TrEMBL record:
This is Enoyl-CoA hydratase/carnithine racemase. The keyword Transcription regulation does not apply. GO terms for molecular function: delta(3)-delta(2)-enoyl-CoA isomerase activity. It comes from Nocardioides soli. SUPFAM superfamilies: ClpP/crotonase.
Amino acid sequence: MSLLIEDRNRVRTLTLDRPDALNAFNEALYDATTDALRAAADDPGVAVVLLTGNGRAFSAGTDLLEMHARATDPGFVPGRHGFVGLLDALVDLPKPLVCAVNGVGLGIGATVLGFADLAFMSTTARLKCPFTSLGVAPEAASSYLLPRLVGRQDAAWALLSAEWITAAEALEMGLVWRVCEPDDLLPEARRHAEVLAARPISSLVAVKRTMTEPLRAGIDAARQRENAAFAELMGGPANLEALTAFAEGREPDFTSLPPGW
């Protein structure tokens, strides 16, 4: 099982559990997490969802080996929900989402914070939005949510540079709410989640709805723009060079690509 589920004091903790793969999302993990978020949304005994990772990573994002197979193998069979299904579940989650970033977060392991109502991060964790280093476009409505969360220039740096963001930088720019020592991270995240979970679920849902409903149209439009750009770039020269370099264990070389790429 690639996802651990635990209930305590009306908090449902979802722990990404592919530590050998740095909790990267393969199709099975996308499906399991989507199902778990939908189940939590529908469960009247769950007030808050806490998302974290097992091992030294929060999530390394989409599994690049599967991404390479998707781009090159006509026989690749996707999961039931996939990346799109996970995003739908995050957008539709009516209850507070608390993220505890325990380690490395790349791609969706970073952009998921745009959907977090509270985000905690270990002092030893790092985040990266690696889109330009993969020759693709932003995802998860990050082109809309990140500028709202951290401001245009911090968002531009995160999305354009594909450079690492430290915990201190994430806190300073407002990408996370609290930074904790590694051993304190999960207890602190759980303590705050349980404070929320002690409130009436109906009120929690109402507060979150009134905060997020004005963003729905912007999120939907951003996802459409990102999907179009991603489809245009996926499998293109830059993306194939990046994925091939990853499979070969080397750094990509974008300097020899055709003009415009």
